[in-house]
Amino acid sequence: MKHLILATLLSVAAAIGFADEQADLFQPITPETDLKTFAWQNRLIVIFANSKEDVSFQTQIDFLKIDPAALSERQIVVLTDPDPDMQSFLRQKFRPRGFTLLLIGKDGQVKLRKPFPWDVRALSRAIDHMRLALDQFEVEGIGHNLPFLSAVMDHPKFVSGAITTAFIGEEYPDGFTGAQLAEPMLRRIAASCAAMHRVAEIRRAKISGRLDNHERKVGDDWVVTLGGQRYEIMISADPQGSTVRFADGAELRVSSDWTPGTALAEMVVDGAPLVMKTAKIPGGFHVRSRGADLKVHVRTPRQAELADKMPEKQPPDTSKLLLCPMPGLVVKLEVEPGQQVEEGQALCTVEAMKM
Q: Which of 120, 86, 88, 73 lies closest to 101 in space, CA to CA?
């Protein structure tokens, strides 16, 4: 009897918790509702209809109630306005015609507008695509801050909305030197690069003009190193993609239409998209993704064994050198050898022409 009472109380508590979550998630639009209240804290799904009995309105609400956890994870609040007679500020601002679904970003801008219901999965993909869009930019030859913006998009403080104008100074006091990716993300990149490298190796093995007794065979076992991690993997390929199996038994399914020489690699790893900008380096790829800048080496087990014995080349010590930012002509020396100098003191004058 005690167990039955306890189970009943737990069920009631869970139902109350779910109801509270639903109340926080779904909020009716009132004449006082202001988007500024949610700025940089929540994304908004705004639903307009001509009445609560509107089939599209009811369908949309049912769609959203199926997976409230996915909405909460993306900091979404649902605002509803099925009363055109109220003429709320938001209705006057967006001027909906009948049923209208809006997806509004944390910056207060409309990201999506639909005249028909969307399920949670489609809405979640639309939100997640905002992050992928930064990785899909291809800008070369000039400096840009796209990696920094990608890192900011994934930063916990930015995602939660708990940021101020001092965000950059607080989180990046020494400047931005690249994002540090979590280990699961490194695995996804490792699996993708291994599958890409294998495709490239198979292509190289088909080059004509080879000696008949030097046929090259591409194996299934590889060792991938990146970001301080080392993964021993085995690849099982088929026409639809590759199954990458790690030494600890974990598996990732990788598929893509990537071809060697393509700079932008758009992969699907276990059903989730992954976008990487890639450049070929000896034995692997230079990869940029989600604000990280990585050298990914994909080697056969024997190549990896030999690579482990190679000493790592250290960068030259320039701490005692005075480096000029560009080539030029030294026209004046301001100090003498052995003279004590102070920070900010002029040392020399260089004449240079900047094109």
A: 120
Distance CA 283, CA 296 (A): 8
pTM higher than the cut 0.90: no
Q: How far is 229 from 248, CA to CA, in rounded Å?
A: 14
Q: Is 269:188 a contact under the CB 8 Å cutoff? A: yes
Q: In this structure, how many other beta carbons lie within 10 angstroms of the beta carbon of residue 159? A: 15
Quote the CA–CA distance of 290 and 152 in Å, as a whole number. 9
Q: Which of 69, 98, 79 is nearest to 33 (CA)?
A: 79
Bridge partners, 329 (sequence order): 351
Residue 207 pLDDT greater than 80, yes or no: no
Copy the structure tokens of residue 325. Answer: 């930012």
The per-residue pLDDT for range 97-141, each reduced to its tens digit, is 899 999 888 878 888 888 888 888 777 777 677 777 778 777 777
Query: Which amino acid does the sequence have at 323?
Result: L
Determine the Cα–Cα distance for residues 125 and 273; give it in Å rounded to an integer: 10
For residues 101 and 123, give the distance between their C-alpha atoms in angstroms, rounded to a whole number.
11
Distance CA 287, CA 83 (A): 51
Strand partners, 275: 266
How far is the CA of 340 from the CAs of 293, 322, 334, in angstroms?
A: 40, 15, 12
- Cβ pair 41, 161 in contact under 8 A: yes
**CB burial readout 47-76, b (16+ within 10 A) else e:** bbbbeeebebbeebbebbeeebeebeebbb
Which letter does DSSP use for residue 5 in this model? H
